[in-house]
Every structure is written in structure tokens, then in C-alpha cells.
Amino acid sequence: MHEPIRTTLAEIQDVLEAERVALRTLDLPGIELAAERKKQLEQRLRELGAKGPLAEDERLAVSKVRDAALANQLLLVHARSCVRGALALATGQSSEPYAHASSAGAGPLRVNLKG
Predict the structure, then answer these.
(1) C-alpha span between 50 and 53 (Å, rounded)
(2) How many angstroms separate the Cα of 28 from the Cα of each of 18, 79, 83, 103?
(3) d(CA 64, CA 54)
């Protein structure tokens, strides 16, 4: 593995770990810092990747970074949902996106996904 790519991938892994912690604790400054740092590192990685094809170990390392980024994306979706729910509770608004379409007395529905 080329040293600059290895170093950049290690930095991205560190940023993704810091982002994961920030997402789990809803630390907005930490989330924003990680997002900015990821943009910088992504640009550097693109420049390094444009110099030629990646070796097998480099592709595996990129795959691990991609998996960590996807896991963080799921955490981000969950964090947004938590914040929206908290804001809805604080303001007295419904946190359900389709609350206006349901009747007041309707309960949850059971859905058979097996057919």
C-alpha cells in the first residue's frame, strides 16, 4: 500500500470513529467538525486515487472505510429522528410525519410481510 493512501485512510478511520461518538452523544460541534474533516480527506483520497489503480489491500481498506461511513450514516438518520422527536415533544407538535392523515382513535396496524 502506498504510504500517503495508508495515512489518509487511517485519518479517515479516526474521523469516522470520532463522528460515531459525536453522533451517539448528539454532539453537534463534533458532528460538524467531522463532516468538514471528511470533506478534506475525501478530496485528498480522490487525488491520490487518481494517480493509478489501487492495490488489493488498498481496495480492502477503502471498503472498510465505506462500511464505517455507512454505519455512521445510519446513526445520523437515527440522531435526526431523536432530535425531531425531542423538538416535537418540547413544542407540543406531533412527531409523526403523517399524523394529519390518520384518525384520532386509530391504533397501530399489523402488516403481514410474509404474504
Answers:
(1) 8
(2) 12, 10, 11, 36
(3) 14
Confirm if 35 and 91 have CB atoms less than 8 A apart.
no
**Nearest 10 degrees: Cα torsion 41, 42, 44, 48:** 130
Beta-carbon contacts of 58 under 8 Å, excluding residues fewer than 6 positions away, are: 1, 2, 5, 6, 9
Residue carrying the nine cell digits 495508508: 6
Query: For the segment 6-54, what is each residue's pLDDT rounded down to a tens digit?
Result: 899 999 999 999 999 999 888 989 999 999 999 999 999 889 888 888 8
